[in-house]
């Protein structure tokens, strides 16, 4: 099996996205990027809006057809795990705690714009609040990793 570097994959994905954006005249909102929190919200809201006839909020780019970034990332990760023999089903110690913490993370990401990719894009647009958010995310990751690693040691 041929190995493809992350650089080549990123370049192909970026150029493909730019071409598709030009061909289909898609104009995503500024700093939308590949925000997992926002794309998940838009996918769920699109499904609910079409199934139940509601009008839950979504980014304008997601209204005609859902943005399937999350589905693509999930399927890609699954294929990569199978291809490299790393797929294993693991039981978590506290599934309810994991669900609650995941729920809180995704909601705070939506509330505060806490997706690192979106926050990075907003920082590049010159948003000072996004810069503070990006620094806060980095500090949180460092402190969380430090706490976790000390606890495991």
Folded structure, characterized:
The chain has 153 residues and is mainly α. It has a domain at 93-153. It has helices at residues 6-24, 36-52, 69-83, 95-112, 116-124, 128-152. Helix 5 (116-124) runs antiparallel to helix 6. The protein is globular and about 55 Å long.
Q: Over the alpha carbons, how many angstroms does the gyration radius reach?
A: 18 Å
Number of helices: 6
- One letter per element, helices H and strands E, the order comes to HHHHHH
The helical percent reads 55-70%
- Name the poorly predicted regions: none
Mean pLDDT: 83
Q: Approximately what portion of the residues adopt beta-strand conformation? A: under 5%
Q: Which structural class do you get from the secondary structure elements?
A: mainly alpha
Q: Note the gap between the termini.
A: 38 Å
Question: What is the number of beta strands?
Answer: 0
Q: Given the C-alpha coordinates, what overall shape results? A: globular
Most strands sheet? none
Index terms:
globular; 153 residues; mainly alpha; 0% strand; 6 helices
Summarize the structure.
The protein has a domain at 93-153.
Topology of helices and strands:
Elements: H1 6-24, H2 36-52, H3 69-83, H4 95-112, H5 116-124, H6 128-152
Helix pairs in contact: 5-6
């Amino acid at each position: 099996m041929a190995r493809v570097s992350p650089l080549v994959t990123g370049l192909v994905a970026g150029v493909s996205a730019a071409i598709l954006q030009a061909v289909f005249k898609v104009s995503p909102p500024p700093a939308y990027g590949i925000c997992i929190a926002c794309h998940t919200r838009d996918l769920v809201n699109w499904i609910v809006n079409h199934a139940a006839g509601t009008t839950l909020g979504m980014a304008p780019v997601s209204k005609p057809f859902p943005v399937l970034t999350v589905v693509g990332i999930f399927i890609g990760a699954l294929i990569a795990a199978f291809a490299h023999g790393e797929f294993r089903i693991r039981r978590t110690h506290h599934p309810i705690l994991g669900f609650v913490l995941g729920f809180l993370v995704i909601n705070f990401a939506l509330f505060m714009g806490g997706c690192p990719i979106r926050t990075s894009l907003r920082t590049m647009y010159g948003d000072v609040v996004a810069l503070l958010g990006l620094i806060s995310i980095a500090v949180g990751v460092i402190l969380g990793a430090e706490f976790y690693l000390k606890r495991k040691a």
